[in-house]
C-alpha cells in the first residue's frame, strides 16, 4: 500500500485509525508525530500556516503532510527506516523545524549542535551509533569530516526555495533490511544527550508518544489555539525549542515562526513583522530583550503578544516583574528537562494564580517531593528531591543500566533537583542537588543568594556558585553583571546580602564581569564556573 493511500484512508476515518494515548491534562494526544499533522489536515486546516520563515513565507499543513510522506519514502529508498538513528546537523530555521517533524515520523532523529568541534562530532556520532548524517548541501565543516572519517553515510539536504521548510534528500543509499513506513507510538522518535556537565553525557531516548503527550500538555497549559503564532528563538538541537515551540504549536493547529536563533538586535523587528502571540526563551534571553525594550516601545504597544513563556533555567522574580510591566502580558514560568520531553510543571495563565519564584503546578506528569528514605513528602512536607512519573517521561537512558538504576526509585524518575510543594501544589525549586554549596557542612542554595543579590539596584545578572576552599571544602562565590551606568563595591554588595541572609551565605568571592559564561542554549551554568573563571583555593 502506498503512503499516499494510507494517508487518504486516515483522512477518511482518522478517528478510528489514529494511535491514541491519553494525556494527563484531559486532552487527547495522538500517539505519533505524523498523526498530529494528519489530524489537522483532516479537520480542515490543509491551507493553514504551520511553519513560517523569518521573512514571513508560509508552509501550510497540507504541504507539510505531503512533504513528510515524500521524505519518508525517500529515506526508505536510501535504505533508512524505523529504528535507524539519523543525526541531523542543520542551522536554526524552517528547514530544521521541518526536518525534525519529518524525519522523526519514520526514523529516529538526533539533532546535533552545528557549533560543535570535530572531536565533539566524532564522540556524539559514535556514541549515538548514527546510521546516517544529514547535512546542508555544500556544507564543508567539521561534521562532514567527522562523518567521513567514521564512514557514516552523508545525506545531502537541498532546500526547495519556493516554500520554507521543504527540502530534498540526496546521497548514496545503503543496502540491507529496511523497516519501511511510519513509526509507531512506542518507537523512539528523538534522541538527545544530557549536558554532561558533571559526568559523561547520557543518551535520552524519547518515543513518539512521549513527544506527542508532552506537546499536548504544553498546548493545554498555554491554551494554544489555531490562531496562535509562536516566535521561536530557541536552538532546535535542544528539547525546549523542539517541543515547547515547534511541536506544541503544531499539536494545537497553530503556527511557529522559525528564526535563525536568538539575536537581541533583531528581536523587536521580528515581533513587528511577524506579529507573534507568544514566545518562549531562557532567562538570559529575556534579560537581553529587556535591555532593548526602552527603544522599542511602539513595537511593544502594537504587538499582539498574549503571554511570554520562560523555561530551562530559573527566572528571577525581578525579571518576571519587569517583563510583565514592559509588555503588559503575563509571564509564564515553566519547568522542564530532556528526560520528560520538556514540560513537567508550569504556572497557569490568568485568571489562575501565577507565583513568582515558583515553577507552578504539575503540568502533565505527576510531580512529587521524595525524602532521603524514599517516602513522598507531599505538599508542605518539606524540602526533598523532585520526582516525576507520566506518559511523557523517558523509560530510561540508552545502554546505561547504572544510570537507570540511579535515576529511578520506586517507579519515580529522580530529576536531581531539590524543592518543595506548597499547600496549593505550587512547586518551588531550591536548587540542583549537584549545585548545592557545602560550606564546611552548611548547605547553601545558590538560588537563594541569587534572588537576594538581584534585589540590589545595581545588579543586572548574577550566578552564585561553589568555589574550592582549603579548609571548608567549598565557599560561596558569585559572578555579577552590573546595570549600565551603575557602580557598587564588593564591600557594599556583601553588606547588602549580609543584611538579608545569614553570614555563612554571603559570597566570600565576587567577580564582576561584562558577561557571564553561558551554555549552548543560553543558560547560566554554575557547575565548573569557578574553574572557568580561574578561581582557586
Describe this structure in words.
The protein is of the alpha/beta class. Helices cover 31% and strands 26% of the residues. A hairpin with a 2-residue loop joins strand 21 and strand 22. The longest helix is centred in the first third of the chain and has 17 residues, at 61-77. It is globular and about 70 Å long. The protein starts with a helix and ends in a 5-residue tail after the last helix. Mean pLDDT is 90; it is low at 1-27.
* Total number of beta strands: 28
Strand order of the largest sheet: 4-3-13-12-14-15-16-17-18
Give the biggest beta sheet.
9 strands, mixed
Instruction: Enumerate how many helices there are, as a single number.
Output: 16
Structural class: alpha/beta
Q: Which regions are unreliable across 5 or more consecutive residues at pLDDT < 50?
A: 1-27
Proportion of helical residues: 25-40%
Distance between the termini: 69 Å
Please, what is the average pLDDT? 90
Shape: globular
What radius of gyration results from the CA coordinates?
A: 23 Å
Portion in beta strands:
25-35%
Set out the fold topology.
Elements: H1 3-17, E1 20-22, E2 28-30, H2 33-45, E3 49-53, E4 58-60, H3 61-77, E5 85-89, H4 94-103, E6 108-111, H5 118-128, E7 132-136, H6 142-149, E8 154-159, E9 167-170, E10 188-193, E11 203-207, H7 208-221, E12 229-232, H8 239-251, E13 255-258, H9 267-274, E14 278-281, H10 283-292, H11 297-302, E15 307-310, H12 317-327, E16 331-337, E17 342-346, E18 361-362, E19 366-370, E20 384-389, H13 401-407, E21 408-409, E22 412-421, E23 427-432, E24 437-439, E25 442-444, H14 446-453, E26 459-469, E27 473-482, H15 490-498, E28 509-512, H16 529-532
Parallel strand pairs: 3-13, 5-6, 5-7, 7-8, 12-13, 12-14, 14-15, 15-16, 27-28
Antiparallel strand pairs: 1-2, 3-4, 8-9, 10-11, 16-17, 17-18, 19-20, 20-22, 21-22, 22-23, 24-25, 26-27
Helix pairs in contact: 1-2, 2-3, 3-4, 5-6, 7-8, 10-12
